[in-house]
Amino acid sequence: MRTLVRSACLLTVLLAVQLATALPARAVTLLRDPDIEHALGELARPVLTAAGLPANNIQVLVIRDDTLNAFVLDQRHIFIHSGLLLRMTSADMLQSVIAHEAAHIANGHISRRIQNAQVANTISGLGMALAVAAVSSGADARAAGGLSLGLASSANRVFMSHTRAEESAADSSGLRYMISAGADPHAFTEVLDIFRGQELLAEGRQDPYARTHPMSRDRLRAIDALVAANTRAPRPDPSVAYWFARAQGKLSAFLRAPSWTLRRAASSATPDIALMRQAIAYHRQPDSKKALAAIDKLVAARPNDPFVHDLRGQILLENRKAQAAVAAYGKAASLAPRNAQILGGQGRALLAAGNPKAALTVLEKSRARDFSDARVLRDLATAYATTGQPGMASVLTAERYALSGRFDDALIHAKRAEGLLPRGSASWLRAQDVISAAEAQARKRK
Q1: For residue 443, how far is the Cα from the chain centroid?
Q2: pTM over cut 0.85
Q3: What pLDDT sits at residue 71?
Q4: Would you call 412 exposed, middle or buried from its count of C-beta atoms within 10 A (0-12, 13-18, 19+)?
Q5: Which of 229, 259, 286 is the last residue of a domain?
């Protein structure tokens, strides 16, 4: 059983190595935040359900990129650029993007492309995207940290570019999903209006969405006809509108200048979103007194919201109030005991508060739910090293480097772990997985 679990944990990494070539990857940043991802999940759920897809098994993730794009690389993740998310003016518009990408999954476009890529061996640097990569702790990604995704030019061409036939099929299916979910199909045309005429521009001036989702006048006319033919009235869902406003409001508060956020916070969709945006903006100024005052008001308004307590824990921890952060993250974890990112924050706070043994327990729970969060792997390595377990620290460091595509560094730490851990143990076998992956990658570079 342990071997099966171990193999499942690194399955996507090994698949990534099989697909990758020696061409250099272009690193991009994936923003991770439990609140934003929950909100996007709530937006996606009715559309994914209408598509017959398992909503609980598909994540909508945000890439930090001001350009407009959305795409799928496998059957479990939909990626949306922050620029596109912030450009949307309604929940229906964002749902139309999700519906279109879900249609590529439901229609089997991704499965066929994976098979073709395995035969042709033309995918470059896909590994970290398929594995959902590894989180770094850059200060410019305080929405919850950044991930390095390997997306090389050949991957863009082969894996992200859809044919016109696929686009037409995804349009038709996506519109059907939207209508079934009660969303307004006119939002579909509102999104595409943003890209009308882009095919006339030079490729370097086009938004990535127009390059990976080919436009044509016939395609746009077909979409308009499908929308016009619909006779079913939309069924607006206030909760969907709320989660859209919350995701967009929180994301913009982390990415825009604090002064920009503070000027607009009062016009937020609800008072609690306004308080959230103010707390983040004050925290980033930094003005800890005002940030804590705003987040405390938000906690009073939403005492049973785990993501509010998570944000409070983040603000406290980044203001060096480790013990108070432990309490805040503990409350968040009690409300959302299976959320890997919240558990990771709780473990990080325990580590900062000087309690590595307790941190180990919580961080291992987080890793069991999301093995690809390199912040957790980094913190676990620190906790194991602090408690006198260098072999475990080395294998976790090796896994973190492997997930971020740094296979040479991963190999160094995996071999160190191999010499420190009991031969045949579960952790020793994990080190062997990293060694195999790193050596396979090295062979491909020759």
Answers
A1: 30
A2: no
A3: 86
A4: middle
A5: 229
